[in-house]
Structures are given as structure tokens and as C-alpha cells.
Amino acid sequence: MALLFKVDDSRGSVWKSLFEQHAPDIDVRLWPDIGDPSQVRYFAAWQPPHDLHTRFPNLDVIFATSAGVDQFDLGELPGYIQVVRMLDPGIAQGIIEYACFAVLSLHRQVPLYLRQQRARVWQDHELTPARRRRVGVMGLGNLGVAVTQALRPFGFELRGWARSHKHIDGVQCFAGDVQLKPFLAQCDILICLLPLTDDTRGVLNAQTFAAMPKGAQLINLGRGGHLIERDLLDALDSGQLSDAVVDVLEDEPPSPDHPFWSHPNLWLTPHIGANTSPDTAFEVLLGNLRRHQRGEAMHGVIARHQGY
Ligand code: GLV
Fold first, then answer.
1. CA–CA separation, 142 and 85 (whole Å)
2. Which CATH class is domain 2-88+276-293?
3. pLDDT at 142
4. Would you kindly state where each structural domain of the chain is located, as residue ranges?
5. Equal CATH topology for 2-88+276-293 and 90-268
6. I need a surface site. Which of 178, 192, 237, 302 has the fewest CB within 10 A?
7. What is the pLDDT of residue 114?
8. Low-confidence ranges of the chain (pLDDT < 70)
9. What is the set of active-site residues?
10. Whole-structure pTM value
């Protein structure tokens, strides 16, 4: 019974040595050295090959090494294979740091002050107190909730939106399609942390931006597929949105002539919000493997019909 990793070489060797030290009974293999494919029961990857279940006839569980599972073609996988997302506390920490950096930068108008610096303009602008800045989080899973709690001490007015209703300390929560517009109307800064599914693809579009207060700001920490890029450019150019911070794109890396590289009101970072680190993720993965071996429910198993 083997666990096969398909990850980059340096991370692969870290995973392998962690298993050798702490769980030597598990036969860990690193792609492309797959050995006898019929022995592979567990598969862990960020980008999987397409023919997983035909190549590995005894596959039981796919562990995403990422928080998102949209890179897997769930429709193609037989229902008996469980798909598990990565609940690494290191991912949550990375997302918290990025969200706080981006929210505080936008709140304190850092993009504007950097534009002024480049133009040699020394001019201050009215300072909005955090208690009058409304920050909305779309997607209230473990990452969205962690971000709201990390933002609380600053005193922002926090809003949250999810498919179904949630109760979160210090956050006014909205749910479902009917409450989307009322939620958006209260987002001076909107953070997208949704999973990418058929329902959420393209959710950051012209209608969404129009429903936000004029001059609002956007942070996309979800997936590139959430955003209609042309609509964001139009919203920035018209002033409907004043600034955006974008960490994820539909096509990564973007082409050299992609307009996001040079738009003055947009900060672009190369999908660095969070990274799974074997150091913190190992315990999570091993815990799930042991649960599976004992016939218990694993943590982070996705509901296949929901796609997350
Ligand atoms: C990274 O984008 C992840 O889903 O963990």
C-alpha cells in the first residue's frame, strides 16, 4: 500500500524524509518513480495527471496539497475515490498575512501614496478610521473565517458572505443569492476567498463591482477563474473601483503583454498568498492517513456534488 506524491522535487524529498522519520510503515513514492501502480492507494498532488483512476486501479484517496481542489476534474473521478483538501495551518497563516497586508494597504491608501511618490507629490488625504471602513469577505470556510478573526482587532466593520448562513463572532453575515447585493453594497474592501466551482466562476464581474460603493477596493485571493479580468479593468478605469490587489489569475503566469502587469491601480503578485509547507502540513496529512487506515472519517473530505 503506497502513497504517491506528485510535487516539485525539493518538496517531494522533504515529504519523503518526514515519512521516513515519523511513519516508516508508509511506502512513500515520488513521481515519476511510481513503482507498481496497483499498490498506489493514496495520491497527493497540486496538479494531478488526467488519467489518475485508470492508471492507479486501487486508488482510494486523493490528497490535494492545496486548499483549493478546482484543479481536479471531479466529474471524471469515480465516486468511490475520496478527495481531501489541505487544511494546513501554514496555509491559513499565509492567507491571514496576505489579507492583512492587502487590507491595511488599501485602507491606508498605500497604492495612492505610491503613485504620488512616483509623481513627487507630497499631499495627505483624509484618514478614514477603521471603524468606518467596511471589509467584506466572500467565502466563509476555514480561510475566510480565519481572515475575519485576524482583522477584528483593527476595528473594521466586518461583513461576510457565503452560500449558506453562518454565525461568526464580530461579523455581520449574509447568505445566498438574495443577500449578495445587500452584502456588496456594504463592502468598501472586498476579499474573495471562495472556492472555485461552477457556481462561483466569474462571480467578480461588472454587476458585482457596480453593486459595491463607488471607489471600493478588491482583493482576489481565491482563484483567477472568479474574476472577469476585462470587467475589473473597466471598473478601475471608470473609478467604480479605485484599486485592486490580485494574487491569482486564470492563466498563470500571464503573458508579457497582460494589462495587469502595468495597470496603475492594480497590484499583481504571483500566487503567493499561501504555500503548503510540508513542515506544518505533514501532521495534517499523516493524521488523515491514520484515520483512513482505522476506517474513520478524514478531515477536509470534499462534498463532490458541491465541488469543495
Ligand atoms: C493555493 O492556491 C491553494 O489552494 O492552496
1. 11
2. alpha beta
3. 95
4. 2-88+276-293, 90-268
5. yes
6. 178
7. 98
8. none
9. 223, 271
10. 0.95
Arch. (CATH architecture) of 90-268: 3-Layer(aba) Sandwich (3.40)
**Residues framing ligand 1 (Cβ under 6 A):** 66-68, 91, 274, 276
Which ligand 1 atom sits closest to the C-alpha of 66?
A: 5
Q: If you take atom 5 of ligand 1, which residue's CA is the nearest one? A: 66
C-alpha 129 – ligand 1 centre gap (Å): 32
What pLDDT is recorded for position 200? 97
Q: Which atom of ligand 1 is nearest to the CA of 223?
A: 2
- Residue 1 has a pLDDT of 86
pLDDT at 51: 87
Give just the sign of the alpha carbon dihedral 28, 34, 36, 39: positive
Query: Is-contact 4 26, C-beta < 8 A?
Result: no
